[in-house]
Design goal:
The protein is mostly beta strands and about 525 residues long. It has a domain at about 330-535. Helix content is about 5%, strand content about 45%. The chain is built from four helices and 34 strands. The protein has a 28-stranded mixed sheet that branches. The protein has a six-stranded parallel sheet with strand order 5-8-11-14-17-20. A hairpin with a 7-residue loop joins strand 33 (about 505-515) and strand 34 (about 525-535). The longest helix is centred in the first third of the chain and has 13 residues, at about 1-15. It is elongated. It starts with a helix and ends with a strand.
Length: about 525
């Protein structure tokens, strides 16, 4: 434990990202920052906690945290035991350490007739939920929360169990927005220098981790087995998510967002997501206990479980990499700019996906524009997708790159990609005309349960390059492999499709500057202008 505490306090004193960048800290840090072994350790049992699993320990835990903060900082320890709590209040310069065998339990809420007690009430928010849902707009109605903090963390091999948390309005708790009800395991707002490391979350409510306006942060080695979102990184900067495992069948696993929850548009930027495993196929709890039971076909589960940028996208996404990640039994990669955001300078590299339930790749520039009046359509540009394998995708939905009329997705490079799906597309599917649905909530199914291409459906785009791409299927598919519609500048090099395919390789409509080279069953061609053509 001391090793973890020293690591955290060292980072707290220096500032994670600022130290890495060589930025002077004197102007941004308070004059007194704890460091070294002299900083105290505060055992919650010394402040009245019992760890018996039934007593409500909230007051004792918060007393321990307050004592550590008053002392200038320190480590608040949870020894083995189960600590049933309502809202725990984080403080600056304080680390929570959940030891092996320790569980912080979200206490049950007796909602009917409740007059006092329970979780903190949702605070007033200038933005409220006008431009995003209720859960994104409030933080205090959580099991563990902190606002305007610095040098704060949660570590240790223990467990946070959100048993008494709501999954959010419209889900399993009818009074999800009522006073006394909590709907997040961990919520952080306007914090800096944050470390969350090595613990597990079971059933985290609406969010396992909701971080909004958090800068200089590290989420490392978390295991989240949950009934809605795993982690949402909203309007955050300079962060690292690594070595995390998230099973979230009912919602997204790792989800950068840029909502209007702070009352203004703020980008999520300078972010790395690496060496993570995301899934949407396991019964909640069976990832943590190691039984890994998959949902059967008799249970209707969204199997979401993916890495998604959006849907909330007011501030944008900039300078982000996702690498060395594994997807299983969930939806695929999703990059969405539909609320006026700039989504730019993003790369996905070394990604393997198996049993994808929808589209393996989904890039959407849209015009939902949920935000202040007068917002303009944003942009989706400079995206690189490389070294990607997708095996046994459902097959009805191909990879999708879709802007809207007058607003093209730009500057996308896709290379060294293998997409294999179950096939079975029909001639009737091949002539479908998907709607534009410019203002609709973005999702691969927005254009219908199936699309007229089985490899890539591309519409309203500019400056595309595909290199070393193979499209394969289990059963024959009568749809074209690639549909390209309203595109300016598209190069296809070494695209491989099944031999003897009954459908054509390319269906081209309204193109300028199209090239195809070294592609099986298609002659090399350079076309300056195409109205309608099949290759």
């Amino acid at each position: 434990m001391d090793t973890f505490r020293r690591e955290f306090l060292k980072r707290a004193g220096m500032g994670i990202a600022a130290a890495a960048a060589g930025v002077p800290l004197a102007a941004t840090q308070p004059s007194k920052v704890p460091s070294g072994p002299e900083t105290g350790s505060f055992d919650v049992r010394s402040f009245g906690a019992t760890g018996d699993g039934t007593s409500i320990e909230t007051a004792a835990v918060n007393r321990a945290i307050e004592a550590a903060a008053t002392a200038g900082g320190g480590t608040v320890r949870f020894p083995a035991g189960t600590y049933a709590c309502y809202s725990i209040h984080l403080k600056s310069n304080v680390l929570l350490y959940i030891e092996a065998g320790a569980t912080i339990l979200a206490a049950e809420t007796a909602m009917e007739g409740m007059t006092s007690g329970g979780y903190d009430a949702a605070e007033a928010n200038t933005g409220d939920n006008k431009y995003q849902d209720y859960g994104h707009s409030h933080w205090h109605n959580s099991l563990i929360w902190g606002e305007d903090l610095y040098n704060v963390g949660i570590m240790g091999p223990g467990l946070i169990y959100g048993k008494g948390l709501s999954r959010g309005a419209g889900h399993d708790t009818p009074h999800a927005e009522a006073p006394g009800v909590g709907n997040k395991a961990i919520a952080l707002k306007n914090c800096r220098n944050v470390v969350l490391k090595d613990f597990s979350i079971l059933k985290g409510g609406h969010f396992g981790v909701l971080a909004t306006g958090v800068d200089n942060f590290r989420l490392d080695g978390l295991t989240i087995d949950t009934n809605r979102d795993g982690m949402d990184l909203d309007c955050c900067r300079n962060g690292h998510v690594s070595n995390c495992t998230v099973n979230s069948p009912w919602d997204d696993a790792i989800c950068p967002k840029s909502s209007f929850a702070l009352g203004y548009a703020r980008a999520t930027e300078n972010l790395t997501i690496a060496n993570c495993y995301v899934a949407g196929c396991y019964e909640v709890g069976t990832l943590l206990d190691g039984t890994l039971k998959k949902y059967g076909s008799e249970v209707r589960v969204p199997r979401t479980g993916r890495v998604k940028f959006g849907t909330e996208s007011n501030g944008g996404f900039k300078n982000i990499t996702v690498s060395n990640c594994v997807f299983e039994g969930c939806n695929g990669i999703a990059l969405e700019s539909v609320d006026g955001a700039l989504l730019e300078d993003v790369s996905f590299n070394n990604i393997t996906m198996r049993d994808i339930s929808g589209s393996p790749i989904f890039l959407r520039l849209g015009a939902r524009l949920r935000g202040p009046r007068g917002m303009a359509v944003g942009a989706l540009r400079r995206v690189i997708l490389s070294n990607i394998v997708s095996y046994n995708a459902a097959g009805r939905l191909p990879a999708i790159l879709s802007g809207i009329p007058g607003h093209a997705i730009e500057d996308v490079k896709i290379s060294d990609v293998y997409l294999q799906h179950r096939g079975g597309g029909t001639k009737e599917m091949a002539v479908l005309q998907p709607p534009e649905d410019e203002n609709k909530y973005p999702d691969p199914h927005m254009f219908g349960p199936e699309l007229p291409a089985h490899g890539f459906f591309i519409r309203h785009a500019k400056n595309l390059e595909f290199t070393n791409v193979e499209i394969a299927y289990e059963a024959p598919d009568e749809r074209p492999a690639v549909i390209v519609n309203d595109v300016q500048g598209a190069d296809f090099f070494r695209v491989k499709t099944p031999r003897g395919a009954t459908g054509r390789i390319f269906s081209l409509n309204n193109l300028t500057d199209f090239r195809v080279l070294a592609t099986r069953e298609v002659k090399d061609a350079q076309l300056d202008r195409v109205e309608v053509k099949m290759l």
